[in-house]
Amino acid sequence: MVTRHQNFIEGRFIESRGSDFIPVLNPATGDALSEIPDTDAAQVGEAVQAAKNAQRAWEKRPAIERAGYLRQIAARLRENVPELAKAIVEEQGKVMGLAEVEVNFTADYLDYMAEWARRIEGEIVTSDRPGETIFLFRQAIGVVGGILPWNFPFFLIARKLAPALVTGNTIVLKPSEETPNNAALFMKLLAETDMPAGVVNMVFGRGATTGAALCEDPAVGLLSFTGSVGTGSRIMAAAAKNITKVNLELGGKAPAIVMDDADIDLAVNAITASRIINSGQVCNCAERVYVHAGIEDEFVSKLSKKMAESRYGDPMADRTVDYGPMINKAGLDKVAGMVDRAKASGATIVTGGSVADLGKGNYYEPTVLTGCSQDSEIMQSEVFGPVIPVNTVTSLDEAIERANDSDYGLTSSIYTRDIGNAMRACSEIKFGETYINRENFEAMQGYHAGVRKSGIGGADGKHGLYEYTQTHMVYLQN
Length: 478
What we know:
alpha/beta; six-stranded mixed β-sheet
């Protein structure tokens, strides 16, 4: 019998009253790992009510006291890194080293957000009236609904929970149905701390049922979601009914510009690392390359060689592989279809280009394509796999124009030795983040946010923290 997970509501693990259960599979082997309930709207409502009941008392606690609970959780995570990392590898498919980094980074993130307890600031605004003082206070929103993705499932718990709690909110979390095991372990460890009942709740289920019920609940004051554009759009539509605030991190189609004065080896190494990390299933990593014609041949030759050398396989069986399987068969089929259509429309596959036959599991070969036209699907739509299309440009102006020609606007990068080119790109590229001469990976003290269809609002740092607050203006007439 596989493990059947329970919801966590008001400080207790409780059985779902529904009869529908969802199997959780290992994407490397297809083996069943566990199953979760598809929680119905009534039980989601109970979780939201528990969070609402706990919120007022939680907000009244000093912020430094709330931060102490985050530190307790962080300590428990660090004591259980091997077990947590193993759960992530088995259900999500990332390599063990990256899973261990994810767990430790999650603990660090909790501690980082806890440090903001003494740094949440308001403002004093000059008044037009004699004897009047105007104050701006930052206050909690109330109940937060946090809907999690499957690609970095453990870290995203903390990315939503930590800023919500330290600013005085309570939260109801819904993990992805693809990767609930790590979340169940997180809640088990949280339950071993002194966290007051109702402050953190978790419900399992599908987006169309459990997620929809959370989005439609009028007691939820903020919906924080990380995932696809399509799901984000549906969340916005559901939130509109109650005018619920949304914070959305959605897809990406990150351009990487490689100029003719770039350090080619640095660019190749960074773009390859960015493309194969987590099997290419990362919204902020390089998704398309614009290389200057003057170095195209050398760059493509080195990039293809580097990608072809990337090793893939079951990360539980071999800790030396560079990447593991795609999350599921649907994800694998999507990548394979996009590459096949690119080839049919005239692109050249320099390396890879096929589903990898390892007997079982959802694996795709590391792939480089050239001759990809700007308006092609593979240059415009998110691949989310170990595939990188290349387009040739003759100037920085052309590269910037093509980079901006996208529905997405999350991250971008440029490789150049010319500081003028780098700074002009930063000024003219319309993306939330730009990386210069390095791989695409953000810092917890930064602000991870996109434009256009890549989302609304952002996460991390001071600005991400304040996403979980609302302002209250006070006019004091003496």
